[in-house]
Amino acid sequence: AVLAAIVIGALAMHGERSLAAADLSLVMTDATIRVIPALGGEREGDLALGEVVRELRRDGVWTHVRADGGREGWVESVRLVSLARR
Question: Is 40 exposed, middle or buried (0-12, 13-18, 19+ CB in 10 A)?
């Protein structure tokens, strides 16, 4: 019974995190995905206004994101707004 309670609790916490959209952000302006977090970094792809991305990591003024279509890389953080429930 204790093990079942632990598993149910863990699943509930995971579900709450998913519903809170804690790691999702909306792209506020067109943006370039870069291989490294630098304006001179090689372009990996583009993001369009209104796309939703998953934030993997923040490093200063850069955010490492994953978008649909397997696009992944660094974007300027000012171009994103969090969808996390407040």
Answer: exposed
CA distances from 51 to 4, 32, 48, 63, 78 (A): 39, 12, 6, 15, 15
Which residues fall within 8 angstroms of residue 11, CB to CB, at 6 or more apart? none
Judge contact between 48 and 33, C-beta under 8 A: no
- DSSP state letter for 26: E
pTM across the whole model: 0.74
DSSP calls for 37-82: SSTTSPEEEEE-TT-EEEEEEEETTEEEEE-GGG-EEEEEGGGEEE
49-58 pLDDT, tens digit per residue, is: 999 999 999 9
Residue with tokens 């372009």: 43
